[in-house]
Design goal:
The protein has 310 residues and is α+β, with helices and mostly antiparallel strands. Helices cover 34% and strands 22% of the residues. The protein is built from 9 helices and 12 strands. The protein has a 4-stranded antiparallel β-sheet with strand order 1-2-3-4, covered by helices on one side. Strands 5-6-7-8 form a 4-stranded antiparallel β-sheet. A hairpin with a 2-residue loop joins strand 10 and strand 11. Helix 2 packs antiparallel against helix 3, helix 2 packs antiparallel against helix 5 and helix 6 packs across helix 7. The radius of gyration is 23 Å and the shape is globular.
C-alpha cells in the first residue's frame, strides 16, 4: 500500500503524499491510525477492510490498558482502571494515601538478613507497577528502586512497595496531558544523577526527561553500568545516556514528519560535566573517565570492512 517502515521504531509505518502524512502504529493485530487528513484515514481504513476482516472501533479511547481522552485542546492519557487493579492485587484498596511514592533518603540492600516474603507476589506487584510507569513518570525512580530486590525480597523491601501503592491510591487518576500546538515545538532534554546511591554496588542512578514543547514524551530512571568515582563522572554518564536518547528521538521525529533531524537542547545541572563535555581535556582528576568510557576505533582491511557487521 506504499507505506514505509520506520528505521528507528519498527512498529510505526508512514505514508507521505504531498502534504498528507499518514502514520500507523502496529501492535500484533491492533492498529492506531493518525494523520493530517481525515480523508486519508478513511481511505486507508476502507482499503484495509477489503483485505482483512477488521473492526473499526472509532476514535481511540482505550489501548493496551491505557485510557485515552481526546479534548479540543489536546489528549490525556492515564491508567486509572489498571492502577485500581494493582491496588486490589496488593490488597491495598481503601488504604490511607501517601503524599510521596518513597521515603526520603531510603536505603535498602539486596543483602538483607530479614525474613523473606513471597517472591512471586512481590514480583507480580512490582511488574504491574513497572507497566504503570508508561503514563506515570512520577513513579519511575521509586519503581526502579524496588525492582532491584526481586530476586530475594524480604520484609524490609515490602514496605517500600506498599508505600508506592499508598501513593498510587491517592493519585489513581494522575496521567499525562498532551497540549495541541499550532506552532513548531522544540525537543528539550534534562538529565541528572545521584552519586553511589546503590549501597550494594555503589552505582549511581541516571534520570532523564524529554519534552516536546510543554509535553513530556520520554522519561527513564536507570542505574548506571559503571561505578562513578566522582559526581562529575556520574553526571557525565547521565548526560551521555540522555544524549543517545535525544538523538534517537530527534531522528524518529524527523522521520515521521519527513524532514531532517533537528538539534536537541540538553539541560545538565553540573558545571564540571558540562565543561568536560564541551572540552574533553582529561587531566589527572578526570582521566579515568576517558579510560573507562573511550571507544576504540580500528581500521579494518578491505576484506573485513566489506563483511557484514556482527
Amino acid at each position: 500500500m506504499g507505506f514505509k517502515q520506520s528505521e528507528h521504531e519498527h512498529a510505526i509505518y508512514r505514508h507521505i503524499t504531498g502534504d498528507e502524512i499518514l502514520l500507523i502504529g502496529v501492535y500484533v493485530d491492533d492498529l492506531i491510525i493518525t494523520g493530517s487528513s481525515k480523508g486519508a484515514i478513511e481511505r486507508f481504513k476502507d482499503e484495509m477492510k477489503t483485505e482483512f476482516q477488521m473492526s473499526d472501533l472509532g476514535l481511540l479511547s482505550f489501548y493496551l490498558g491505557i485510557e485515552v481522552q481526546q479534548h479540543g485542546d489536546g489528549i490525556s492519557l492515564c491508567q486509572a482502571h489498571y492502577a485500581s487493579r494493582i491496588l486490589q492485587l496488593g490488597g491495598m484498596e481503601g488504604c490511607n494515601p501517601a503524599h510521596t511514592p518513597m521515603e526520603e533518603r531510603l536505603k535498602l540492600s539486596r543483602e538483607s538478613t530479614a525474613k523473606e516474603v513471597d517472591a512471586t507476589k512481590y514480583r507480580q506487584i512490582v511488574g504491574s507497577l513497572r507497566y504503570l510507569v508508561h503514563t506515570r513518570p512520577d513513579l519511575a525512580f521509586a519503581v526502579g528502586f524496588v525492582s532491584r530486590f526481586m530476586e530475594r525480597p524480604t520484609v524490609e523491601h515490602m514496605p517500600a512497595v506498599k508505600r508506592i501503592l499508598r501513593y498510587v491510591a491517592g493519585t489513581t487518576h494522575y496521567g499525562l496531558h498532551y497540549w495541541r500546538k499550532t506552532k513548531e515545538a522544540q525537543l528539550i532534554g534534562y538529565s541528572d544523577s545521584d552519586l553511589a546511591g546503590d549501597i550494594d554496588t555503589r552505582k549511581s542512578t541516571s534520570g532523564t526527561l524529554f519534552f516536546l514543547g510543554n509535553n513530556l514524551v520520554s522519561w527513564q530512571s536507570l542505574k548506571q553500568r559503571v561505578v562513578a568515582q566522582s559526581s562529575c563522572e556520574a553526571e557525565y554518564v547521565a548526560a551521555t545516556t540522555a544524549a543517545t536518547q535525544g538523538i534517537w528521538l530527534a531522528r524518529l521525529l524527523g522521520e515521521l514528519l519527513g524532514r531532517k533531524a533537528e538539534t536537541v537542547e540538553l539541560m545538565v545541572d553540573s558545571k564540571s560535566a558540562l565543561a568536560l563535555a564541551k572540552n574533553p581535556v582529561f587531566h589527572e582528576r578526570s582521566k579515568h573517565i576517558d579510560i573507562r568510557r573511550r571507544h576504540r576505533l580500528v581500521a579494518l582491511p578491505p576484506a573485513a570492512a566489506a563483511a557484514p557487521p556482527v
